[in-house]
Amino acid sequence: EAEEEESESSMESEPEEALGTEWVEAGAGTMASAASSTGGRGESPAPSSQPSPARTPAAPPAAAPALARPPSKPAVFIPVNRSPEMQAERLKLPILSEEQVIMEAVAEHPIVIVCGETGSGKTTQVPQFLYEAGYSSDNSIIGVTEPRRVAAVAMSQRVAKEMNLSQRVVSYQIRYEGNVTEETRIKFMTDGVLLKEIQKDFLLLKYKVVILDEAHERSVYTDILIGLLSRIVTLRAKRHLPLKLLIMSATLRVEDFTQNPRLFATPPPVIKVESRQFPVTVHFNKRTPLEDYSGECFRKVCKIHRMLPAEKEDQKDSVEEVRKFKKSRARVKKAQAAVFKPPPEGTRLCVVATNVAETSLTIPGIKYVVDCGKVKKRHYDRVTGVSSFRVTWVSQASADQRAGRAGRTEPGHCYRLYSSAVFGDFEQFPPPEITRRPVEDLILQMKALNIEKVINFPFPTPPSVESLIAAEELLIALGALQAPRKAERVKQLQTSRLSCPITELGKTMATFPVAPRYAKMLALSRQHGCLSYAITIVAAMTVRELFEELDRPAASEEELAKLKGRRARVAQVKRIWAGQGASLKLGDLMVLLGAVGACEFAGCSPQFCEANGLRYKAMMEVRRLRGQLTTAVNAVCPEAGLFVDPKMQPPSESQVTYLRQIVTAGLGDHLARRVQSEDLLDDKWRNAYKTPLLDDPVFIHPSSVLFRELPEFVVYQEIVETTKMYMKGISTVEAQWVPVLLPSYCQFDKPLEEPPPAYCPEKGRVLCHRASVFYRVGWPLPVVQVD
Ligand code: CDP
Ligand code: MG
């Protein structure tokens, strides 16, 4: 089961003016020029402007480098008052013996890479080393980024506890919340939060050190931060305000960072932390089970459990537990905290884990690992954005990480449910995220940083040219980027020199922490009292999967009957929330609005969610995101004076129509048109829809309230490929809106000099209730007459 924790962008949004003078002064010019020199920055990294600290071997840990002006300032050592137990526990960590080496490297080099196995102490200890060495003196902050929210929160708590400091000093900031104060000296945050901060203060002046943690995960935002920080470090050195950058990775595979002259002209030093690893004997299967890998896992676990020694005896209960685990995912969640505790006397702990346990999490005392060799990942088509969950083989690196988990406390065994020949065919490493998903959100953020020629940006691993083009095309269509003249664009595409500057609308969109399509909706919805509804729809679409998954296979007749009952119940509440007539035309997005409205009206209780098939956790997230988006909208448009009204009244009929237009403008490239009966090519096109990008038929997902309605034009939130290509999150579009709202997706039988007057992407004014249309729509199948 894939556990995808979405990474995120930051919470506060401020008007563009808040980009700050630093950006204009140092950022704008320098970044643009830095990014435009194809060969990377035209200079070697500025030598560290401060002298190496004088080191006295007796003074633990490291002496502090004189960082701030005046340079003659004496080195500071900030004492930390740890409890003796804590100190004893720290001393066991492998990274403690590397403290001197790390701190010396940091003093001498602007950029340092630290590699060490999961559990060696990187995340919890390195910030403490830096703190003690005075890198947070003069009210500056040690910043640490994490790709996952949970890690940012948990690590700030852990470090505060280890250092005997309050969370006012060791704090965190994630998308929705944080506890950062004036006193904060160590700040854990998600990588998206730091990216937003760069938009406000390009030089990141409040930090003396930035640590990018878990760089091996190659999350999109961490990758971008590496590229940006490589420039920021140089700019800061020029100003004699040096910034230190530490990149921390759980694997040794850092060539994408070190052997990348576009990124770092001189490869930064790599410090390897040796960890205690006991030998792990790897057992391959003779043949590879093709189908039932989870059943195979289960049998193997039972066999190990019966045949192989545990410290304690009495094993019956746990086999039963495993059987239950196999059946029910819910139990696994509940057990999360328990895996860190020693199992009860006389039992054996069996952990069923996703790839989270590969590197992000160390569970103590694991001796046997059973590896099915599979990973379930959301897979995107780079150009069309169609996504599907696919179970694929892991990489060799991941398989080795999994095996390594067995040797943390004593020699162990790893049972691989595949043959060594199959292993030999695995990819060496998992591909970085940036090569695996659409990048329009990223490109918009980068354009907002005035990086126009995105293609020249020093990505550790660049996204493909097709996905860059697809992203720019979408942003142009949304009005977020200035559309070049046709001839100019053709030239750009031929030479891969994409360089469209951002528009005012684009800048506004970039301040909203949601995907560009949704940001467009927000930017448009300042009229007719639609804002709070648009915010709710966007929040619900961003959180996704508000409804419980009821399509799962049932383990017994009894469970099947229960599932069927729940499905019927959910279908019924969806119909109620979708309503009739005008309201039903907003389709699944009306259902989202109804679900949030009804749930909030009921006080968002877990009981309400349970009874109506809603996921409580998702509903709480929608609530937080609504709050955050409301703040963001108020920042751009203070006169809106919005507040989150939990008891939201249903929208009026005309508001629903405006909302549909707003949704159409945002999801425009996700337009689909039903194949007319006279155009039916063959049976596979029955009830099918056609979209501009895909040759294959797409269908309305059976869970949609419009499944039986089959409107002529729809926009969809996403296409997910299972047995067929299914559109999810559907809303209907009136045919006469298409040429007005989405002229770029139409073919006109006479040339369209400029967009119809009612639509102006720059100003974002689309809300004409009845557009008078004089054009014929020629898309996507044969021409229809629209009056
Ligand atoms: O970052 P890295 O994986 O190298 O290690 P870490 O997260 O700093 O963890 C170092 C040690 O602290 C591990 O052995 C964890 O078991 C322990 N730890 C803990 O006991 N409680 C936490 N909340 C976090 C870490
Ligand atoms: Mg870590």
UniProtKB/TrEMBL annotation:
Keywords (A to Z) from UniProt: ATP-binding, Helicase, Hydrolase, Nucleotide-binding
Gene Ontology CC terms, in alphabetical order: nucleolus
Disordered, as annotated region: 1-71
Helicase C-terminal domain residues: 265-450
Composition bias, Acidic residues: 2-19
Regions of compositional bias (Low complexity) in chain numbering: 25-57
Domain Helicase ATP-binding intervals: 103-270
Highest taxon of the lineage: Eukaryota
A single GO BP: maturation of SSU-rRNA from tricistronic rRNA transcript (SSU-rRNA, 5.8S rRNA, LSU-rRNA)
GO molecular function, one term: hydrolase activity
Name used for this protein in its record: DEAH-box helicase 37
Taxonomic lineage from the root: Eukaryota, Metazoa, Chordata, Craniata, Vertebrata
Interval of the full protein contained in this chain: 157 to 943 of 1110
